[in-house]
Amino acid sequence: MLVRHKGNLRWENIPILAYKEEGGCFKDITRQILFEGSGDIPCQLRYFEIASGGHSTLEHHEHLHLVVIVRGEGHVLIGDTIHSVRENDVMAIPAHAWHQFRATSDKPLGFYCIVNVERDRPTRPNQDDLKSLCRKPEIAAFIRS
Ligand code: MN
Q1: Ligand 1 midpoint to CA 15 (Å)
Q2: Which of 9, 33, 77, 126 has the greatest count of CB atoms below 10 A from its CB?
Q3: pLDDT of 20
Q4: Nearest alpha-carbon partner for 44 in 67, 27, 25
Q5: What is the three-state SS of the chain?
Q6: Which residues are catalytic, by number?
Q7: What is the pLDDT of residues 37-49, one digit of tens each?
Q8: Ligand 1 centroid to 99 CA: how many Å?
Q9: 81, 109, 110, 105: which is closest to 93 by C-alpha?
Q10: Domains in the chain: ranges and CATH
Q11: For the chain, what percent of residues have pLDDT higher than 90?
Q12: How far is the centre of ligand 1, averaged over its atoms, from the C-alpha of 135 (Å)?
């Protein structure tokens, strides 16, 4: 199976999808599914791209994310730490760590994200969660929810 790259991080016969099917607070982010999981690799490989100024949802879940930044630069909250990230950075987002990606530079932020095909649904923060996240001023300033 070959998924042919067309250039500019777009692939032949791979539709550009909405980031998520359901609600949540996100902005200017697209999703492409490059591998659906088969045989002894029960993982999905997705490519997400966040336009400058955009962000993913603030969420946590049981399943892990393995993320490789491919394009641009930005910031990501993992747990209670905000990291600046750029091309070829690799990060594992552990179970139940709050996380949110933001394209904070003037360029889009593109990344591969590997997840298990069988995975739980994300949980979004309630008022108590937000209150405890916002105890750190830098996180209060960073998150979008
Ligand atoms: Mn997630």
Answers
A1: 21
A2: 77
A3: 84
A4: 67
A5: CCCCEEECCEECCCCCEECCCCCCCCEEEEEEEEECCECCECEEEEEEEEEEEEECCCEECCCCEEEEEEECEEEEEECCEEEEEECCCEEEECCCCCEEEECCCCCCEEEEEEEECCCCCCECCCHHHHHHHCCCHHHHHHCCC
A6: 113
A7: 999 999 999 999 9
A8: 7
A9: 81
A10: 13-142 (2.60.120.10)
A11: 95
A12: 22
The pLDDT of residue 1: 87
The CB density around residue 33, as the number of other CB atoms within 10 Å, is 15
Compute, in angstroms, the gap from residue 123 CA to the centroid of ligand 1.
9
For residue 21, pLDDT over 90 is answered with: no
Question: What radius of gyration, in Å, describes the C-alpha atoms of the chain?
Answer: 15
- pLDDT at position 73 is 95
Phi-psi label, residue 131: left if phi above 0, alpha if psi -120 to 50, beta otherwise: alpha
CA distance 22 to 8: 27
Q: How far is the CA of 13 from the centre of ligand 1 (A)?
A: 25
Amino acid identity at 122: P
